[in-house]
Amino acid sequence: MAAKKSFPLRLDPTLYEALERWAADEFRSVNGHIEYLLREALRKEGRLPSPKGASRKED
């Protein structure tokens, strides 16, 4: 697995608190939940390469 890229992210405190609650509801860390949300958004828009052998599913 390739190393993950890290970078600073500045968020409005209210936005962070909402993400923190949502992540806790999903049993994820805030960082993990942000990564999940970004990955899902990219997948929905067809901007994330599909894994080899996977068929593309339309939503």
UniProtKB/TrEMBL annotation:
Keyword Oxidoreductase recorded: no
Domain Arc-like DNA binding residue range list: 5-48
GO process terms (BP): regulation of DNA-templated transcription
SUPFAM superfamilies assigned: Ribbon-helix-helix
Leader sequence residues: none
Record keywords, A-Z: DNA-binding
GO molecular function, one term: DNA binding
Domain of life: Bacteria
Protein name, per record: Arc family DNA-binding protein
